[in-house]
Amino acid sequence: MSRPPVIFYETNYFRFYGAGMMLLWTMQHLQRLHPVFVTPGEGELTRRVREAGIETIVLPASAAWQRAQGKKGASGKLQKAAISPTLIGHVRALARLARERKAIGIHANSTRAAVLAGPAARLAGVPMWWHLRRERPMQGSERIAYAFTHRVICVARAVKRTLGDPPKAVVIHDGIPEDRLDHGASGHALRARLGWSDEARVIGAVSSISPNKRHDLFIHMALTLADEFPDARFMIAGHRPQGAPASYEAALHALAHPLESDGRLVFLGWIEAMSEVFAAMDIFVLASANEGLGLVAIEAMQMGTPVVRTNTAGAEDMIRDGETGFIVPTDDLDALTDRVRLLLQDEALRRRVGQAGATFARTEFSARRMTDLIEDLMLNS
Fold first, then answer.
1. What is the CATH number of domain 5-175+366-379?
2. What is the CATH number of domain 188-364?
3. Residues 229, 197 contacting (CB under 8 angstroms)
4. Which of 10, 53, 116, 335 lies 20 to 30 Å from 25, alpha-carbon distance?
């Protein structure tokens, strides 16, 4: 028996980061539904989805709309608002496609996508499911998306709470594929390449080099702890995404210079195969000012690396403070430094927290569990 089709619609097709990665994993793990990926243009996400063997349809939007994608700030918002009327034809084409493919519904992978997919789903006479991956209050775009949605899939309790706990919202955690990480990986080779011994205590961070990730807090923490722990080493994996200010990255290198110059702190750049990186760490730090869930912290936990993270969205979902990891207030350098210091001082605590975190994260945050819940929701709409 053929599987019922669902259209998975995303407007942010030009790059491939957390939200796009989760969308790809969701479509790859569906067992009862047939995914049809629909997007307004060609880009990195489009390429990745197509290469994964998922049916992909590019449904072009207006040239003016495509030129406006990636524009930031108030001027970018004004530009996008001004060209919104040009999208009427695109919405109608999406509705027509849903009818032609006999799709049972349209999944929107972002608020911007939901604003377009909602009216299209209404025209096609099918439900729209809005996947909300960030804390967003119920304001202009969110109100429009919510008016058209059948269910809002929130990736964390804080995301649902910030939206106002509306009745159509449910929480389904993101999940990681079983083959994403090699739980038996060794960090020995990476340490050797960096000139670090196996006895060194390594503290790491993994995220894009953008201001909201607060690498500056991580570096300030490193500067403090480097004096207390001569064998401590620090690594930052990730690169500056399109639109992030180059000045921020330059400021980070200037701040880190005392440790970079003697090889005690390194910027690794973008690394997609992360098992070796997590295996080389003794402690993982997520110092972000905001998150949707904090997928990379889940990956670190699944690898058995103890996690210290800020109290952003997702923290309460993944960490029982002091048991499966540690939660600190956002923008609190002293608290962040204290928790990392505590773990540096106590190898048994690192081992205990790492093992407890791995057990919890591998069960609660699996791609199989995530897609089972999403399919249940869609098939019962």
1. 3.40.50.2000
2. 3.40.50.2000
3. no
4. 116
